[in-house]
């Protein structure tokens, strides 16, 4: 850890300790040791190199005021009256760069696209299942295609209409 980073962590822990003055000494030491271990674990996991990254870890823990309030709430004890120095919020030392802004979260877009994809797949699957359950269409019989040429005349079977010439009436025959 760089000396400057050691100063940041030490200052943060000191501010928390000031706000925990109403807790028993052993409980206060245990909490501070847990905080220091947590900060060190986060630094190692993230391979923190800059002060900005360290400040981000400290900000995620919460201000010393928030950490102390949570400790008092967990202990079930009443919190002592805050002094002027205890009410001050934690700010990084002057000249320190502010932590970079957190990246925007676009998870809701991916969730919406996934939901739309699921709906499309379900619709296509339902259509395919319906088509397969009905089976292929059966061919129509030839009788379904035969329609009379003149709707007022009776239908003649197709074989009789094409095989013999039309009969001439007996009065039209010549001797």
Our Rg estimate from Cα atoms comes to: 44 Å
Q: What is the tally of beta strands?
A: 0
**Percent of residues in helical segments?**
55-70%
Shape: rod-shaped
Structural class: mainly alpha
Question: Hey, roughly how much beta strand do the residues contain?
Answer: under 5%
Number of helices: 8
CA distance, first residue to last residue = 132 Å
Note the run of SSEs as H and E: HHHHHHHH
The main β sheet shows up as: none
Notes on the structure:
The protein has 175 residues and is mostly helical. It has a domain at 3-87. Helices cover 59% and strands 0% of the residues. It is rod-shaped. 11% of the residues are buried. Residues 81-87 have low confidence and may be disordered.
Report a brief summary of the structure.
Helices cover 59% and strands 0% of the residues. The chain has 175 residues and is an all-alpha fold. The longest helix is centred in the C-terminal third of the chain and has 28 residues, at 107-134.
Question: How would the blueprint of this fold be written?
Answer:
Layout: H1 3-19, H2 25-46, H3 51-61, H4 64-75, H5 84-87, H6 107-134, H7 142-145, H8 158-163
Helix pairs in contact: 1-2, 1-3, 1-4
Keywords: Membrane, Transmembrane, Transmembrane helix
Transmembrane segments: 106-131
Region (Disordered): 133-175
Note the main attributes of this structure.
175 residues, mainly alpha, single chain
